[in-house]
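Task 17 of the worksheet. Students: predict the tertiary structure of the chain below and write it out as structure tokens. Keep your answer in the requested format; marks are given for formatting as well as content.
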Amino acid sequence: MAGNVRPVADERDGLLQFLAQQRYVIRIAAYGLTDEQARAVSTESPLTVGGLIKHVAYTEQSWIDTVLQRERGSVEGSEEAYSQHFEFGPDETLAEVLAFYEEVAKETEAVIAGIEDLGQPVPVPQDAPWFPKDIDAWSVRWVLLHLIQETARHAGHADFVREHVDGATAFPLMAAAEGWPESPWMKPWSPAEQPA
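Model answer:
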């Protein structure tokens, strides 16, 4: 996937493509990282690149569960689960987290493909103080827009954390991942040029 979303066919395609683009951008923040670097706390914040990717994967999965009115168990939706979803633990690997995120993305696309009307109501959860009490339902369309917003927010966080890990920034990382040629104003990231 390139730096921009391809032309879209319709609203559904556009929403899914922009969500896919934001997933791609947050994954780019992990490009070339070791597991140790992906769990490195590099700023005053406890956020890590691996933890941010894990969080957006669980967040997307949770919203698709909400669309389907599906429950995963008593721990999901708890404060403990929320905190754990931000933590990239010592026994986790970046490859596992990225594979999990890919599976979540595939399920999202399959679920959305099976919903005829993006205006279909999605009941507003009542288990968190930030959910409105005066609205009964959003729509599937709203959920997709919210997922784009949420993923984009955390992609920005991941960019910032990654830059503090090894100095790499988004476009040189994307250039390296996609094999862009070097230009006078863009040099693809290279692990060989990173400090030891």
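Marker's comment: Residues 140-166 form the longest helix (27 residues). The chain has one domain: 11-193.
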